User: Fold this.
Amino acid sequence: MKVTFYGAVREVTGSMHMLSVNKDKILLDCGLFQGRRKESEEKNKNFPLDPSILTNMVLSHGHIDHSGRIPLLVKNGFKGRVICTRPTLDACRFLLMDSAHIQESDADYLNYKALRGHLYNLTNNKNSDLSNRERKEIKERLKLGRHELNRAEIESGIRENNLKIIEPLYTTEDAEYSLKFFDGYPYNQEIPIGKSMTVTFFDAGHILGSALCFIRGIEKGRRFNLCFTGDIGRFDRPILRNPTLMFPEEYRDVDLLITESTYGTRHHGPIENLKERVKEEINRAIERGGSVIIPAFAFGRTQEVVYVLHELYDEGAVPKVPVFVDSPLGKNLTGVFGEHPEVYDKATHKSFLQKGKNPFSFKEITYVGSVEESMEVMKMTTPHIIIASSGMCEAGRILHHLRYKIHNPRNTILIVGYMAEHTLGRRIRDLGWEYEQNGRKGKPPEVKFLNKLYPLQARVSKLSGFSAHADQEEMTRFLKESNLNIKKIAVVHGEEEQSLGFAEYLKDNNFNAFVPKPGETKEF
Ligand SMILES: [Zn+2]
Assistant:
């Protein structure tokens, strides 16, 4: 078998590899590159292969950096099936539509900015400075309301002025169409994916639907077995089962394991304090008469936080103040979680299902729908808890909740997720944490969002136990404690130093590991 390592190679996003066996070509993941706009745009647009040559595709899980280019794959001539677990298919229905929506609004905004700049210049050329009134008129022409762009007007303006129109990477129609190519299957079932080749999905414990994908078959009379881990989750986390460690005999000898290394050289904090810490933070904020704002990714983190809150409420460990989940995507994805109890761990069955309870629904929780409802929550002054996206505070309803709550020292902003560099979430986390460590002395730090500076007076607390990726120890636990005999390991899906560091660490532990180069093909 040959494997070509196309994406998430010496970097974290854009997961994509191709397995060639006999005449079959199987794509493993087809993820979006995320990061600096220009660079990722180029990488996302240009497919390194002709999608029409592919037999089928295997998708490890729904995260956009693993699934986000599927609409483009289909648009460019893919004729096969996208094979994944059932929960992954159900999650992708919402995740891909949401991704398409983001692509469309990004393109709209860039077109708006280009045309607005052009019209400013045209007006300016009449030898007079542009007045505020003139600026306002131009803006108003291109908008439908304060926050909505007039797409038709912008597109015709771009054409009339011979400017280059920016197309979205793909549209909501493209995303919807690509979903027709998906087939969802249960875990632990052998599924044909090519001529004398099958895939079997086992729990990866990373996110709802995530799978360790075992591809087995025969080439030139010899059996082969490849394991593509996708992302590996952590042990003993809420809701999902742990990564599988015990495999049936026929899966145990692995010729090649392709594995992630997001936290290849890092170590997380212990997981068991999580509920206790959430309890402390809530009690502290509510005693002060404040509220708790939790920025959270709509897929995974939101449901985990809801789960922990539900447990705390059931135990009477915190005052039962109202809880609001304010993210339309989060609401839909919580629905998907609710529809797949077959993937929950034993603890979830014991605490909730056996008592006839849905883990994501309790008396005090409201899933906010309309913008009007969301506005009502923003203006609330009595103690409450808000879980909203986006997870890194770059867009979405969380910004409006922050706008109302950030300057009140009674409130707490609880950081439960990864905050990438250069995001508002990262600034809030770092500046707030520093201010807290200095005993909140002097002027509070300021953060800018929605075109305004806000004093960061709310308390900032961070919890690390929620991370969805295994750290070095846990990945090694999977490799050592599982009953797999692994011949060779390809380390992908990590920043270069993480991948190289993890490969070194594996070699020190007697594994035969290497880090492929982007685009490299290797024969095994
Ligand atoms: Zn993932």
Notes: The pocket of zinc ion is lined by residues 61, 63, 66, 206-207, 231 (CB under 6 Å). The two ends are 6 Å apart (CA to CA).
